[in-house]
Specification:
alpha/beta, Cathepsin B, Chain A, ABC transporter transmembrane region fold, Rossmann fold, 3 domains, six-stranded antiparallel sheet, six-stranded mixed sheet, 24 helices, 19 strands, about 55% helix, disordered N terminus
């Protein structure tokens, strides 16, 4: 064995650009790029599982630990800017105090960076100095490092899922289009007959027959073309509707932390990728097949006419393929940059709309507008760069087509002059050559369109290939456990541990407590100690790290079943655009009007609603913008009561109420005789509880029942 063949000299290596899809996963994106360069090809989905990324990002120490999982030895280095060229590249740089990028190479005064958020950048020393914090991480393979490919290509069939009628519709459209193409192949022959037979022989009867045949072919083309277009429209609508519904269904059943780690604009853009992919599949795929058939058909006819002239067209096609391959990388990077810039601008715009009141109150609209302008300019520049590439490429393509046409005409005309071709044959050949060039160009373009879909496939895959929320207990059972339960402890936390990530400190550190039947328990503690986390664990939104939660005597109740029987008012709860009735009933189809009004009375909001012009039919804006904070909270309480829950979880549900209304609502809680866990800070709310639990240091303990005095000390 030649040992020289085992040495990796680095020739031919390419550092990939891997974009982050979560807000805080720049670290693992950089790690994936460096690992790929060394020969370990993995993707972000696998690295997320290995490294356990949280929405708070990754520390330098954790980044080194994750590198070791890939058999990459990390060495943290503190250095000055002028020492960058001494680093073993590619390496990871700490950027802007809260970000990571990959240093590709230092080339004199220019420094090449792969930024997982902003793409490939070439910066000068002054620009780098504004961002670089002086800390770098070199990663080198350990002795047991293995080159391997772990990443899997995203298959379109996986992204599409189950759709009905797709294959049959594609088949019908293909047959229609195939007939159209066959008919189109006959037209140049008619032209040749007119020129060589009719005009030369002055045969008017033949002219009538040829024109009649042309009219029949044209009429047939028109009818079949209409049928094909209508079938394509129906396919596009039905396919898009089914696929979008499948993705929507999957998207909103993903774990909550998936949404917490991504911007709204990014999620929206990923969902919109369905339209781009669908358009390519339903139109470009069929057209590509037809182009292939037409290329074969026209080339066969051209070879019959003259093989030498046909070779010119074939050589031109090969040149076009080479041109497309040469430009593909630049086009893909440009499209990725445009997508990212558009996503960032959309996220910023949505965030600005949501926070417009805060911006006005604090007088910061000019600053926000300036920041949006910068993002808008970034998007425009990205689009402009993409358009410039397209412009240059189109000019080169038009030039190539013109040269080919002139070359074919030159040699073809000489064949006519030499008596080897008739004028009709030349005109027919030129027609076939033009159709061949158009079809081969279209076929090549469609091929690269499919390759370009990888930009959108990866984005959509972030939704479709993420596992839906599942019950942490495999054998979880449903409704009967809750309905028939006659025991004492309704809810019981048993030595529960929880943290948001592998490198994060535990929020719960062996928490144990219980809530008994028909008991109101107040959970108090300092802000940020983990009280809201307990409510989300209780509702099955998060899964415990260790320990168990017993619901109605069992620790294996399915989350879906549990949530149908538990009412909750969380801090993040929102109202939706619609009427007050729709918001209280949560848009349920079967309205129980008497129970609706009773729930509003119990929540102390009935009189407020009656004073509105349209009463319960009053429309409220997105997030309840037309209501006061107290009215929103009471409508949310009414909504929680409307589902007739067996248990209530209230997280600061009365924090916006005045003392009198809060007292009324708390008294109502006592009268409904269901167990309630309420997270609270206000003494009046705490005083209404039967027991008070204090959360401190990740554990929960009961405090004496002198609530009013104790709550002031908490």
């Amino acid at each position: 064995m030649h040992t020289e063949g085992l040495i990796d000299w680095g020739w031919g290596k390419k550092l990939p650009l891997i974009r982050q899809t979560e807000k805080a996963e720049c670290g693992i994106a950089c790690l994936a790029m460096v690992a790929h360069w060394h020969g370990y090809k993995t993707d972000l989905r696998l690295l997320r599982e290995k490294c356990g990324i949280t929405q708070h990002g990754m520390s330098f120490a954790r980044l080194i630990e994750c590198g070791s999982l890939l058999k990459l030895s990390g060495r943290a280095v503190r250095l000055d800017l002028h020492e960058l060229e001494q680093l073993a590249t590619p390496c990871i740089l700490h950027w802007n105090l809260n970000h990571f990028v990959v240093l590709k190479k230092v080339n004199g005064k220019k420094i090449e960076i792969h930024d997982p958020a902003n793409g490939a950048l070439t910066l000068n020393h002054d620009e780098v100095n504004k961002h670089f914090t002086g800390i770098a991480l070199e990663l080198t393979p350990t002795h047991d490092f293995e080159k391997k490919v772990e990443s899997k290509a995203v298959r379109l069939s996986t992204l599409i899922g189950k759709t009905v009628g797709l294959k049959g519709a594609l088949g019908r459209i293909f047959v229609f289009a195939l007939v159209l193409e066959i008919l189109a192949l006959t037209l140049p022959i008619f032209n040749q007959i007119v020129i060589d037979e009719v005009l030369v022989g002055y045969d008017k009867n033949l002219l009538v027959l040829v024109i009649g045949a042309i009219l029949m072919v044209t009429a047939t083309q028109t009818l079949i073309g209409l049928a094909q277009q209508w079938a394509t429209i129906k396919l596009s609508v039905n396919f898009n509707m089914q696929w979008a519904a499948n993705v929507f269904h999957h998207l909103f059943r993903l774990p909550i932390d998936w949404f917490e780690k991504r911007d709204i604009g990014s999620i929206s853009a990923k969902f919109s990728a369905v339209d781009v992919i669908q358009q390519t599949l339903t139109t470009s795929a069929i057209q590509a097949l037809l182009d292939l058939v037409l290329v074969i058909g026209t080339l066969s006819v051209m070879l019959v006419y003259n093989p030498q002239l046909s070779l010119i067209a074939i050589a031109a096609a090969l040149g076009y393929v080479a041109l497309r391959f040469a430009w593909f990388g630049a086009f893909k990077r440009a499209e990725e940059n445009t997508w990212e810039a558009s996503t960032q601008e959309e996220s910023y715009f949505i965030e600005t709309v949501r926070g417009v009141l805060s911006l006005r109150v604090n007088g910061t609209l000019p600053w926000r507008e300036s920041s949006w302008r910068n993002l808008n300019i970034n998007r425009r520049n990205a689009q402009l760069h993409e358009q410039k590439l397209g412009m240059i490429y189109n000019i080169m393509n038009v030039t190539l087509v013109s040269l080919v046409s002139a070359t074919v005409l030159w040699f073809g005309a000489n064949l006519v002059l030499d008596g080897l071709f008739t004028i009709g044959m030349l005109m027919a050949f030129l027609s076939y050559q033009g159709r061949f060039s158009a079809s081969i160009s279209s076929l090549i373009n469609k091929y690269f369109e499919f390759k370009m879909l990888s930009v959108y496939n990866e984005r959509l895959a972030d939704i479709v290939l993420t596992e839906k929320e599942t019950d942490s207990v495999p054998d979880a059972v449903g409704l009967p456990i809750i309905t028939n339960y006659q025991g004492d402890n309704v809810i019981e936390f048993d030595n529960v541990y929880f943290s948001y990530g592998k490198d994060q400190p535990p929020i719960l550190n062996g928490a144990s407590f219980s809530v008994r039947s028909n008991e109101i328990v107040a959970l108090v503690g300092a802000s940020g100690c983990g009280k809201s986390t307990i409510s989300k664990l209780l509702l099955g939104i998060y899964s415990v790290t260790s320990g168990s939660i017993h619901y109605f005597g069992s620790k294996s109740i399915a989350s879906k079943s549990l949530r149908t029987q538990v009412g909750a008012v969380l801090q993040e709860d929102q109202l939706f655009s619609g009427s007050i009735i729709e918001n209280i009933t949560f848009f349920a189809g079967d309205l129980d009007e008497e129970w609706l009004i009773e729930c509003a009375r119990r929540a102390g909001v009935h009189d407020d609603i009656e004073r509105l012009n349209m009463g319960y039919h009053t429309l409220i804006g997105e997030m309840g913008a037309s209501l006061s904070g107290g009215q929103k909270q009471r409508i949310l309480i009414a909504r929680a009561l409307y589902k007739k829950p067996k248990f209530l979880v209230l997280d600061e549900a009365t924090s916006s109420l005045d003392i009198y209304t809060e007292s009324f609502v708390c008294q109502m809680f006592k009268e409904i005789n269901i167990p309630i866990l309420m997270i609270a800070h206000r003494p009046e709310t705490i005083a209404s509880a039967d027991r008070v639990l204090l959360m401190e240091g990740g554990v929960v303990k009961e405090i004496p029942n002198n609530i009013k005095q104790e709550s002031k000390n908490v």
